[in-house]
Design brief:
By secondary structure, the protein is of the alpha+beta class. It has 31 helices and 28 strands.
Length: about 900
């Protein structure tokens, strides 16, 4: 049920719902008893005074609406990072010591990072809010003895609601009257087929999906009409309880958020430690206090990678935009990367793996079984059957088309329904149409003169059709019921008696189809001389029809892609075990005949599961009859065993697990508002293959993040080593604090940005997921950072030494040489970020056009720093001269040449290794 935004008074009414529904177990009690307890006369309904009093008592019939994220909340989110807080601290220290230029420059970095993240997340958040289909839902009620239409939000317990096919159920109703009622409850229970409804009570222990005497809020009535009394509204409804469960579920922080915080904590310790050690050692050696404070600030500036938040945010934002172009809408930047770490996808069946519609899949006739695949009828041996040459098949399809209330509209426009009626009957009409049999043409030849509506007790329906003075009866219904009323069975060349042995064989065929997950209908016919004849006597049994919710065509390839990527796909459905098994085999989740289905009631809290049981559940691929709370237990089980869990779904029943999982993926077309609110990502096309694209993008993004973090840290470490060693050796600073900031903000950031937006490589989805516990930089990457940092620092210090000792340059010129040597060494260092097993001149780093553009831009900026007087004056840079440029070029290329030689050696030593990042 959807509603308009609420005013503050409405929100207060909804915010304090009653702890329990007004009546207990309404599905298990006779409806007259409930009406008496609720104080309502079914024929008169409630009075206006009673409605007003109950609204004050129970509140409005509305679910709590998650308030939209405010602009200020989105902006504040951009500063909840230790890296950003480190930058804020560095800016504050700079301002405190009157280092206005440095402080202002760091503030600009903070602003740019916040702006990129703010704009990106604001767009995503507003797009998510635009998906909410807000509208006014009305209900037909009987109040004060007359029928009236009122807003659904005004319903109260005890209201008498009139319902018919096509309506959305406005509250939880206990049925009191009903005719041929069926409801689509897939969004609530996961049951793909419409559920028959009746007024008879059911046992108190009956599970939610089988409470046939209730209609539930938010589900759709697909057929029939009836009346019911409201037994629960708002948060007390089944839908409301699940929504509350979702709101109580703690939002999991993504792995990237956890890793960046861990990285920030380590970086904070390193920054403070280095600054303190160098500053204190200088003071103890008698150096000027203010000079050592300046040096400590320079070291802090050198340690903190100012460009990291900008590059990380940009890489994630670009990934978000790429995914949006492929119909994947992400509402949190950090969630983009999370799919790349995913090890398990827990996916709903209905509407995710399947199309959430019924379709005829097989027919069983006396001469054998025929399967309907892609518009063709084929025998079990694969031989194609022409319906025009198969009289029994044609008669079965004619009966299916005639005995129906649904209609297909061949001229429907793009915004009009192409079919109207019960999904099962629509499936029968479509199957007949694929054989060239059209209901309209049949009715023109054999007009319908009488209809026997579906009788829930008899479990059959029939239609009478006149032709040449006689009447043809078309019957469909439950196989057991139709067989009990049949006298003969149709053969290709006539009829034969339906003996007990033949009847038993047909019942066995029905049982086998049901075990395969089909919804089974029986078809029968009879010719009579009068339209008043009894419809269900001496029938000619024609055959069985098996219907399935068909799997989506792209799912099998997507499942295989996940398998190659080392990602497990687990089906979690509220449907029956046989149906789940059949779909799992159809989409490639399990081998035919080998699928093991685990019942949902086996999923219990971790504390209640012994170790052996945990292992069995972790290895299971198919779970059936799973409740919302059991889905939470499954997600918790996998997360407890260090899996990164993605949960897909579209129904209300999926919302708690979507929120609990590491990344929730909701369906945008079929998905409910509750599911979309709880998810981190919404698939606008409901395509499972979009998840595979998101997996690929997530992996590429993490590879890029790891690559540019390694690049930035190795550059910053070289600066720390240069400043620290020079300070300890009582030598002039090879690079000044503002020059460090210039490098960190300009010549570091642009190559890092280019590395952060690198494209995918073909092998990325043929590798297993990385260890979820692995940090952004593992031990091997820290070794690479140290190695590269030492290489660059050694080259810069050697350039400074040559300038002073060999070429006898004055200090400003020598510092300019060391500054430019460091700058260009860092630019060329970007090419060291290729994988060790990639080719020297043909790899994804060399092919990155953004990197070449970044190098050209940075070279221009460095030349401007030397030859533009205002900028040169701020940075204290002078013209290095010809000798200086020779030193700069030769020394800056040295780390690149040594690094590439190391990669060639590493690649030859590990010819079969493949990694996402350079081994160092």
């Amino acid at each position: 049920m959807t509603t308009n935004p609420l005013d503050s008074q409405s929100r207060r009414l909804v915010a304090s719902p009653p702890d329990e529904a007004p009546v207990r177990s309404p599905w298990s009690r006779p409806w007259p008893e409930l009406c008496e307890e609720l104080g309502v006369d079914l024929e008169a309904g409630l009075s206006s005074e009673e409605v007003a009093e109950r609204q004050r008592r129970y509140g409005l019939n509305l679910l709590p609406i998650a308030p939209p994220r405010s602009v200020w909340a989105i902006l504040a989110q951009q500063f909840r990072s230790l890296i950003v807080l480190l930058l804020v601290l560095a800016a504050a220290v700079s301002f405190a010591f009157s280092q206005w230029t440095e402080g202002f420059a760091i503030a600009v970095v903070i602003f740019i990072n916040a702006a990129i993240g703010f704009v990106t997340e604001l767009r995503a958040t507003r797009s998510m809010e635009a998906l909410r289909r807000l509208g006014t839902v009305s209900a037909r009620v009987r109040r004060q003895g007359r029928t009236q239409e009122v807003p659904a939000s005004s319903l109260v317990p005890g209201d008498v609601v009139l319902i018919e096919g096509g309506d959305i159920v406005p509250a939880d109703l206990r049925l009191c009257r009903g005719s041929r009622l069926e409801a689509d409850e897939s969004a609530l229970t996961g049951e793909s087929a419409p559920v028959g409804k009746g007024v008879a009570p059911v046992a108190e222990s009956t599970p939610l999906a089988e409470r046939t005497s209730l209609l539930f809020t938010g589900t759709a009535v697909t057929r029939g009409s009836g009346e019911g009394v409201v037994v629960a509204t708002g948060a007390a409804t089944e839908l409301g309880q699940i929504a509350a469960l979702a709101s109580e579920t703690e939002q999991e922080r993504t792995p990237l958020e956890r890793r960046l915080d861990q990285f920030g904590q380590r970086l904070l310790g390193v920054t403070l430690g280095i600054a303190a050690v160098v500053g204190l050692s200088g003071v103890l050696r008698g150096r000027e206090l203010f000079l050592m404070i300046q040096t400590a600030i320079a070291l802090a500036v050198a340690t903190i990678p100012e460009g990291l938040p900008i590059v990380a945010t940009t890489a994630l934002a670009r990934g978000m935009w790429r995914m949006a172009r492929r119909n994947a809408l992400v509402n949190r930047l950090s969630a983009v990367e999370t799919l790349g770490a995913t090890t398990v996808i827990c996916t709903d069946k209905t509407g995710t793996l399947t199309e959430n519609r019924m379709a005829v899949s097989t027919l069983v006739l006396e001469e054998g079984r025929l399967d309907l695949r892609r518009g063709e009828f084929r025998t079990e041996g694969g031989e194609r059957v022409d319906p025009a040459q198969a009289p029994a098949l044609r008669q079965a399809l004619e009966i299916a088309a005639l005995c129906a209330d649904a209609a297909l509209d061949a001229e429907a426009g793009p915004n009009q329904p192409a079919a109207i009626g019960d999904p099962m009957e629509i499936a029968l009409l479509l199957a007949a149409r694929q054989a060239g049999i059209h209901r309209e043409a049949l009715l023109a030849e054999q007009p319908e003169v009488r209809e026997e509506a579906f009788d829930p007790d008899l479990r059959m329906m029939a239609t009478f059709h006149e032709r040449a003075g006689r009447f043809r009866i078309a019957v469909k219904g439950a196989p057991e019921a139709v067989l009990a009323r049949s006298r003969v069975v149709l053969l290709p060349d006539g009829e034969r008696p339906l003996t007990p042995e033949v009847r038993a064989r047909w019942l066995e065929a029905n049982r086998r189809l049901a075990e395969e997950g089909f919804r089974v209908l029986a078809l029968a016919t009879r010719w009579v001389s009068s339209a008043e004849a009894a419809p269900y006597e001496d029938l000619t049994f024609v055959g069985l029809v098996g219907l399935l919710d068909p799997p989506r065509e792209d799912v099998r390839l997507a499942v295989e892609a996940c398998r190659q990527a080392g990602v497990r796909v687990v089906m979690v459905t509220g449907d029956q075990a046989a149906t789940a098994r059949n779909v799992a085999e159809a989409v490639g989740l399990a081998e035919p005949g080998a699928a093991q289905v685990v019942a949902g009631d086996e999923l219990r809290p971790l504390a209640d599961l012994p170790e052996q049981e945990r292992r069995r559940l972790l290895e299971a691929t198919i779970f059936a009859r799973v409740s919302p709370r059991q889905k939470l237990h499954l997600v918790d089980l996998h997360q407890h065993h260090n899996n990164i869990v993605a949960m897909t779904g579209d129904g209300v029943n999926d919302a708690p697990a979507l929120k609990k999982s590491d990344i929730g993926v909701a369906m945008g077309l079929r998905g409910t508002q509750v599911a979309r609110e709880a998810a981190d990502m919404v698939l606008l096309d409901d395509s499972f293959s979009t998840i595979v694209f998101a997996l690929e993008q997530g992996r590429v993004i993490f590879r890029n993040i790891r690559r540019f973090v390694l690049y930035l840290l190795s550059c910053n470490l070289s600066e720390v080593l240069i400043v620290g060693l020079a300070s300890l050796l009582d030598a002039p600073l090879p690079i000044l604090p503002l020059q460090i900031l210039f490098l960190n903000l300009v010549t570091d950031v642009f190559p890092a940005l280019a590395l952060g937006v690198g494209e995918s490589e073909s092998a990325v989805m043929r590798r297993p997921p990385r260890d979820p516990r692995e940090p952004i930089l593992a031990a091997r990457h820290w070794r690479a950072v140290a190695g590269y940092g030492l290489l660059i620092a050694a080259a810069v210090l050697l350039a400074l030494g040559l300038s002073l000792a060999v070429y006898h340059m004055e200090a400003p010129r020598a510092v300019t040489v060391s500054f430019l040597t460091l700058a260009f060494a860092q630019l060329w260092h970007a090419f060291n970020m290729r994988d060790a097993d990639s080719r020297l001149l043909s790899n994804d780093v060399v092919r990155n056009r953004y990197l070449w553009g970044a190098l050209a831009l940075c070279t221009g900026l460095l030349l401007a720093a030397v030859y533009l007087s205002p900028l040169a004056g701020v940075l204290k840079v002078v013209n290095p001269g010809r000798d200086g440029w020779l030193i700069i070029i030769s020394m800056s290329l040295t780390p690149l040449l040594v690094g590439q030689l190391g990669k060639v050696l590493a690649g030859s030593l590990r010819p079969s290794s493949r990694g996402h990042v350079p081994a160092g």
